[in-house]
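Lecture notes, structural biology module. Today: joint structure prediction for complexes of two components.
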Amino acid sequence: MSAPTKDSGLAWVGRAIRRVEDPALLAGHGRFTADLPAALRVRFVRSPVAAGRIERIAIPEGANVVTAADLAALKPIMPALHKFGYVPIAQPVLASGCVRFVGEPIAAAVAASEAQAEDIADAVSVDIAASAAVIDAGAALADGAPLVHAQAAGNLVVEGKVETAGFAAAQGAAHRLIAIELRSRRQNATPLEARAGHAAFDPVSGRVTLTCATQMPHLLRTAIADLIGMPEGELRVVAPDVGGGFGQKMSLVPEYVVLVWLARKLKSSVAWTEDRRENLIASFHSRDQSVRLQGAFAADAKLLALSAEVVANVGAYSCYPTTCAVEPLMAMAELPGPYDVRAYACVARGVLTNTCPMAPYRGVSRPVITTALERLMDAAAAEFGMEPVEIRRRNLIEKFPYTSVTGLIFDAGSYQQTLEIAAAAIDVPAFRRRQQQARSQRRYLGIGFAAFSERTGYGTPAFAARGMGVTLGWETVELAMDPSGWVEVRIGASPHGQGLRTTIAQLVADELGLAPDRIKVVHGDTDRTPYGWGTFASRSLVIAGGASVLAARKVRAKLKKIASHLMEAAADDIVLTDGVARVAGTDRALPIETLARAAYHQVHLFKGEIDPAICETATYDPPGTFSNACHACIVEVDPETGRVTIARFVVAEDAGRLVNPMIVDGQIVGGVAQGIGNALLEEIVYDEGGNILTATLADFLPPTSREMPPIELLHLETLDGTTITQAKGLGEGGAIGAPAAVLNGINDALAPFGVTIEEIPATPRRIRAALRQATKKPR
Amino acid sequence: VKPAPFVYHAPKTLGDALANLAEFGPQDGRVLAGGQSLIPMMAFRMARPAHLIDINTVAGLDRLAVEGDMLSVGACVRHAAFHRPVVEGPTGTLLSRVVRDIAHYPIRLRGTFCGSLAHADPASEWCLAAVTLGAEIIAMSRRGRRVMAADDFFEGMMATALAEDELLLEARLPLLSPETHFGFYEFSRRAGDYALAMALVTFRLQDGVIVAPRIGIGGAEARPRRMAAAEAVLAGRRPDTESFRAAAEAAADAVEPMEDIHADAEFRFDLVRAVTRRALERARA
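The predicted structure, tokenised, for the full assembly:
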């Protein structure tokens, strides 16, 4: 890290420097929750039935087992939402009276070792009078369906409705009405590290430290203190190295509440490490949705009106803080995507079922609604007899700022340009020739596009519009320079694989004229960092990064002031570069560490004009910004087996300024991998009784390196100044676009057979089932 | 994912191992060889053996040798031993081709050939090879030694003719004659996953027509099986696409498929048809 820096220039930003996080992780020196020693280990007893009344819990003699009866003083988890008819529902920390899904925690067995705790949990016998369960959202909405929560009539927990003025007229004016119905099966985010918590009581302070695999340490501290009824000052939450989250770790985990309660009660340290089976059964799920779309197109294939019906299976409870409304309501707000459509009607329902609760997962609803909308575009293109690229070209937004039909403001982007460069890279005309040749050899190739927007980096105004009980959004950063001139950046965001310690150091380095290796980013510890919301929703680089820059500018101003005193020059003439403060146009210069030392040890020199020490705080609460991208892929479908092979995958994306292009590429490739998993492989399957049939990684199938094609990446950088850093969020885009591109590719390949697949994952079994129905002989 | 309590035995000699089996086999004892199926099942507590008899410590069980016209595979020979052909001729090449579809490299380093046979997973490549090639299974106990035909050994899904006190000591594969053609094709969801269907075929050509065809199907039924009807279709025909399609159709007609979340019966008919034809095409190549 010896390259020159320049005053407020862009020397470090934009460079693919190596991640400071990686040496420790690669050498096996990472510190994860499960690495901590603990006096006691916990194993949870979980419900084996989907619905029923708990009649008796028989605990082996002498065993330490905690049940809901022990936790009677704790409040239930009850997130709030003040809009869209949301019905508040409560989740007891441990099941109390009844169970509502297979995997719901009923009791906690505590013992000296994990094996012993598991033996005890095994020996706990729970008598449950099973009752009728509803697993499928359609069944839950049917008349007379059993109720998951008595207060939610018809199992409807939230219902968003919108219809713009003139919708009916716009639809009536259509040249063609084209409908599509897409089914997205249930997913699990499958972070490499499952959930893990470790709560330790400190006899000196009386405080408990909860170390856990979380994306939101501060909010977790508030939530747990609220439920237990303890002052937040008695609880410290630490997120050490966290092995991925993807949203699964951004909700309150009932198991962690039990750990904190146990640590206080037993005055000891207690730990729980979730195994993969528990994670697949009982950690949060996502994406179990059906979307019906109808597009009203003009004769020139312009989309005049869009109507949508979204049904989201939200599981048995509501996650804190977003609530289970997050999926259906995000679907409603963002369904029109990047297309210029001025008439819109939507009904989005969240439906309770006796299944594992839903929580956000990379992309939230957008992988589903993007797939639906992009299928609609391809279906329309086929009707109009035009290329998928052409119908998108005619409908993508191109004037900015653009206010969407649902009132979202799109800042400048490159929707048309990313489509064009993706199409050029994949070479559509050449592909069409190869496709024809291949068909004559009974090989079926297809091309699939997905154009989409990714709403990122949004602050309190966007969250306030949702009406949640907790309005998330801003981030505060505290930036301190110590007397040796080293910098500590304390952030409330909580990276868990995103490389924020590297990218924020790059941003601050350019502001202060220092090399990034002198800048240490501190996160994931409520005792060491200012209150913040954590890392999710593609927000951290935009918001915490923006706040870091604001705080760094204050420090820069202070350093210049100190330098102006010490070198008797005007502050405006001071330039910070290469670790040195120079007086512009002279050879006078002082190392920045000399300024730092003076700020602490030589304050008398400043005659009261400069406060001692160097520590500045800044907060950033932006309106939000939209990234955009176009994915394009070529797939081959084996019609005899239904196997899909991805031959090429191109991503053309625009997330504004690339702070570290290597990290950007990693985010996109990882997201695309998860999107390919959604498109082809991953599915949580319940039987009719609510038992999960995919409880191991032999049955729930994330893609491996052997299923991944190389991803070809193309970058555009729209710099319009919407955010402080000119960078936009991009953490979710890969996962948002890939399922749509792959499904469109499959359907293009299947076109000669006259069948379509409108379901993800598009498994070999489903593709074969469709082909058996094929009426046409392939051309 | 901690196993239920069990007693661990590490015999040093075959005699001790058989004594352990005689005593603990009837008390829910299980043999531990590579442990690549048993240990995960124990971690999930789906298997709860009271005793584990570890044969990795018994000298001499990793013997892999040609004896006359048979290949002898000892109880502790790992999958990885077959990465390169273990014997000249089609048998060695066939085994080196089949082994590549068994799970992933680290698993192949630990898991054993005979352990796969004893576990009798319907999706096991080695079980299919044993049935198709007509292997002999040698079981040993304090009561004595007995030899079973592979076809008699496999009784159903994860069920074999092995008695509680018996050790699967050795499998013996008849060597294929040098001019034998073979082909293997497996369909699984991802690389290394369990087979949803697979076919292993062998045949010879005499005067341009197929003789002694063997068509084994695995992963589709509760146990691997040779498809006599499909073999009958193939015998005496030329090795052309039309013959292969007819044989594949016959195999699909004959199969009685399992159903699971990855494949219903209809899909398994499709797969059996596809893997049989493709295995035959590979055999011709």
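Point to remember: The CA atoms of residues 398 and 483 of chain A lie 51 Å apart.
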